[in-house]
Amino acid sequence: MSTRRAFLKLSLGAAAAALPALSTPRAFGANAARTLRIGNQKGALSLLKGRGTLEQRLASLGVKVTWTEFNAGPVQLEALNVGSIDFGDVGEAPPIFAQAAGAPLAYVAATPPRPQSEAVLVPHNSPLREVADLKGKRVAFNRGSNVQYFLVQLLRKHGLDYRDVNPVFLAPPDARAAFEHGSIDAWVIWDPFFAAAQASFGARVLADASDVAVNRGFYFSSRNYARDNPDVIRVLIDEVAKTDEWGKNNRAAYAAELAKLWGLPAPVVERAVDRTAFGTVPITKTILGEQQKIADTFLDLGLVPKRVDVLQAAVPGLA
């Protein structure tokens, strides 16, 4: 899409308990009518929705839950920016662009690093064998995505500059077609597109993000919602953690549910799930520092118009 196993040994309650920095709810009685509007992509939050456990737990707090499905993280964050949702899940890059646009987001939880879930792929018969071989080659990726950051860092690690390759900006479906027809030399992509390319074309991994990029997922809210509803956020993150723990211990069943959501063959999703690091971790300054490095790289590339201070998206009282 590491040292992630240590956190998984903690109780699920520890993940949610990492949010006490949020103040107690303001201006709400124990059973005051409230709403939690979740924006979800087809993934872990969709599995949580199907279980109904979140609604059951929040009912005792007088909280009604609504769900809206989105096809991408940037659209979710735009919905947050205009006040249409209170919570969602997203990758590393979209929150940076959202902050640059003035969105009032707050990071409330994250996944462990998932560097093996994103990679530079080449055709199985490609003469490219090392990262240095990418010099002068056509490399496709989604512009402004976390894999663009991964590519920049990978090239630097191997003594190359971003200007040493010929970027081809393509969304995953278009990049897949270009890869299949040989009109690009390499494709930088994440799961499940990564796993699908391996299964369909025998794509070969030139390098994954291990020791190069972190590749986390994030859960976000708005600053006001996180400040005023810490009890709701704690329950929500606890339920996310429980769903994730179930997936870790039941990978085949987890993959089967995702395969239905994504409309992909089960073996493809199983491959992606096998290299997924499960877990739900609290936001720390170290994690936000990782995001700051991405934000600064995007500024250097001219992808954002001004420097983004990621710490401004911390929840109140972050240690």
TrEMBL record:
> Is Transmembrane there in the keyword field?
no
Q: Which UniProt keywords apply?
A: Signal, Transport
Give the UniProt subcellular location, in the record's own words.
Answer: Periplasm
Q: What SUPFAM superfamilies would the database entry show?
A: Periplasmic binding protein-like II (SSF53850)
Q: What function does this protein fulfil?
A: Part of a binding-protein-dependent transport system for aliphatic sulfonates. Putative binding protein.
In the record, the note on similarity to other proteins reads: Belongs to the bacterial solute-binding protein SsuA/TauA family.
Record protein name field: Putative aliphatic sulfonates-binding protein
Q: Which organism is it from?
A: Paraburkholderia caffeinitolerans
Q: What is the lineage of its organism?
A: Bacteria, Pseudomonadati, Pseudomonadota, Betaproteobacteria, Burkholderiales
